[in-house]
Specification:
heterodimer; A: 294 residues; Rossmann fold; 2 domains; four-stranded parallel β-sheet; 14 helices; 8 strands; globular; B: 191 residues; mainly alpha; Fumarate Reductase Iron-sulfur Protein, Chain B, domain 2; 12 helices
């Protein structure tokens, strides 16, 4: 069994509850131990880095220093936590002067940043450590015939941490296919959904979210899957607002990739937080019920 | 801020993310890749040119960087490694620190509510953060009552699906976090 420092991120307890629940539910059956980082703080995300660039790095550095105590890779399922923590890790390694100032500040809490661990996205761990082949061997409900649009969003693949291609990524496709499901052509798979600006600039970004849903529907998808809690909230919770703004009739479920994996592992829907999805995933659940060979 | 002693370009270069600005060759790949370029007062290529021309006030009072979605498409495609996304963050930091008033976008209010939630809890409490944000734009909400009321179903849906807990999670080490931040500020201002 492989061990990791686990960083759920703030949204895994609220808007991304389905992500937090499903990650915890699939870890055991996939033979990985995710040890929650003790007393982790918010990574700072885009807002902190935007308002106070340097200070945001010391905020992220507390988490990195906490994780270094055990030496395991720091793994997060949230794309925003990933880009923030990996970015801070890189910045501190590239800027020795800032790093010594950060360490002087961390010392007041008895902590030190050494730069000894990697920050990784859960999709990276599932694809490269657990591997699609291993997951396929654990599948109890093969999702044959289910048409899925794998939505990567932005911060899983960009700026460029080497996990996947920045414009035509494939890792999430591999995780969907190993469950027996089909991936549809999906040209919008790595285009931006509007990010957190749906909150403060909704009128200017909702069209971006709509285009992603339209692309999935045009290509015959029965559902979208994504790892990112913010993308999931935009595509799922905002579907109603998109429909009223653009006079459309989207009604397509948006699952976390970890929820889809959990369904294929025959984990109970409730344990995967399927009841927290706003567009009902009922059709996907029915499809699995009716088409899956026991 | 010692305006006049250092040039605007120097300030940007000294802010995390602004280091690579001189590598820009003005090819425009960033603007062509930006999903928000049409909404910005000055799109990415132009704003880089303006920084290098020293147009501090025009740049820092514009809405451009506040419309950045941090999608990093420009950064992934830039043939010179300029990282325009990080330049946008650097400009937001400078505009915030120098007290520039930005018209026509409430992104700074949202970001401030977000950061304030982290500073008091150690984590973001999404419900509390949203309340603080809406209070900060109250006059605008009141002047558009119908649009404001139409937001309610979204909040209720999130709440009824257990996705907007009312109670905040606070970390044990929030005093530690405050002391670390305080110490870091002292170190930065003394050098």
């Amino acid at each position: 069994m492989k061990h990791y420092n686990y960083f759920p991120g703030c949204s895994a307890e609220s808007t991304g509850l389905g992500l937090g629940l499903s990650v915890e539910a699939i870890a055991g059956p996939l033979d990985i131990e995710l040890i929650e980082l003790e007393d982790w703080n918010c990574c700072g995300s885009t807002p902190y880095g935007s308002l106070e660039g340097e200070e945001s790095i010391v905020v992220a550095a507390r988490d990195l220093a906490l994780a270094e105590k055990s030496g395991f890779d720091l793994v997060t399922p949230c794309s925003s936590c990933y880009v923030t923590l990996a970015g801070a890790n890189r910045h501190l390694q590239e800027h020795p002067k800032l790093r010594s100032q950060v360490n002087e500040a961390l010392a007041v809490a008895g902590l030190e940043y050494k730069g000894s661990i990697r920050v990784r996205h859960l999709v990276d761990v599932l694809f490269n450590d657990v591997t699609p082949e291993f997951i396929a061997g654990k599948v109890k409900n093969r999702l044959d015939g289910l048409k899925v649009a794998p939505y990567y969003g932005c911060q899983l693949v960009r700026p460029r941490y080497g996990l996947d291609d920045t414009e035509f990524p494939h890792t999430l496709d591999g995780l969907v296919k190993c469950l027996g499901a089909e991936t549809v052509d999906f040209p919008m798979k790595a285009r931006c959904c509007g990010g957190s600006l749906t909150i403060c600039e909704e009128k200017n970004v909702l069209e971006l979210t709509r285009k992603i849903l339209q692309s999935a529907v045009d290509n015959g998808a029965q559902c979208l899957v994504t790892p990112c809690p913010l993308c999931q909230t935009n595509l799922d919770a905002y579907q109603g607002r998109i429909n009223s703004r653009f006079k459309t009739g989207y009604d397509i479920p948006v699952l976390f990739i970890t929820q889809l994996i959990g369904l294929a592992l025959r984990i109970e829907a409730r344990a995967l937080g399927m009841n927290t999805n706003i567009v009902s995933p009922g059709e996907v659940l029915d499809y699995i019920q009716n088409h899956v060979k026991a | 801020m010692k305006v006049g002693m250092t040039t605007f370009l120097d300030e940007v270069k000294a802010t995390p993310g602004g280091e690579h600005i001189l590598a820009c060759i003005q090819c425009g790949t960033c603007t062509g890749s930006c999903p928000m370029a049409a909404q910005m007062e000055y799109p990415p290529r132009k704003i880089i040119a303006m920084i290098r021309a020293g147009k501090r006030n025009e740049v820092l009072s514009s809405n451009s960087m506040w419309f950045c979605l941090s999608c990093y498409m420009c950064t992934a495609r830039c043939p010179r490694g300029v990282r325009p996304t990080e330049i946008a963050h650097a400009l937001e930091s400078l505009a915030n620190q120098q007290g520039f008033r930005i018209g026509g976008t409430s992104t700074p209010n949202f970001y401030r509510s977000f950061v304030s939630s982290i500073r008091s809890n150690g984590r973001v409490h999404e419900f509390g953060m949203m309340v603080k944000y809406y209070l900060s734009i109250l006059p605008e909400l009141i002047s558009h009552p119908v649009a404001t009321l139409r937001m309610a179903p979204l909040g209720l849906k999130l709440f009824s699906h257990k996705r907007l807990p009312l109670k905040a999670t606070r970390i044990q080490g929030r005093q530690d976090l405050s002391r670390i931040i305080q110490k870091f500020r002292e170190i930065r201002s003394s050098r």
